[in-house]
Amino acid sequence: MKSTRRNFIRTTASLAALSGIGNPALSAGNRLASAAKDASIDLCLAYFWGIEPRKVALARQMDVLGAVGGINPAMAGLPGRKNYEFEVIKGVKEAWEREGLRLRVIEGPPSL
Fold first, then answer.
1. pTM of this prediction?
2. Does residue 110 share a domain with residue 62?
3. Are residues 27 and 62 in the same domain?
4. pLDDT in tens, 45-80
């Protein structure tokens, strides 16, 4: 077989797929399976304008279940409140959870 990058990728991908077959440590529902799958890295997608349904659907398809976003009182159903209030932050976190994502990082200007 000619040694090319395409053949190398095909061969290593096949070997990686076969390495998990029949291995009880990699069975579904096992905590080790999750760690082996993604090396315990939580992938997140940035949402600069709040919850965007098309972007959320894409993230779910890619199995990226973390969100990076700001705190907006309107997302929590509390317009007019300050973005550093506990109820607002909790409400925004719950809004993300209703979408099936976990708010992992809060970005934006600091609230003093």
1. 0.63
2. yes
3. no
4. 999 888 999 999 999 998 899 999 999 899 999 999
- What is the rounded CA–CA span in Å between residue 105 and residue 82? 19
Helices in the chain by DSSP H: which ranges? 5-19, 31-38, 53-61, 86-98
Considering its fold, how many domains does the chain have in total? 2
Range of the domain at 72: 42-112
Residues 47, 89: one domain? yes
Could you give the C-alpha distances from 7 to 13, 17, 21, 96, in angstroms and in order? 10, 15, 22, 42
Confidence band, pLDDT 50/70/90 cuts, at residue 43: confident
Amino acid at 44: C
Residues 76 and 48 in one domain: yes
Q: Which residues sit opposite 68 in a β-bridge?
A: 46, 105
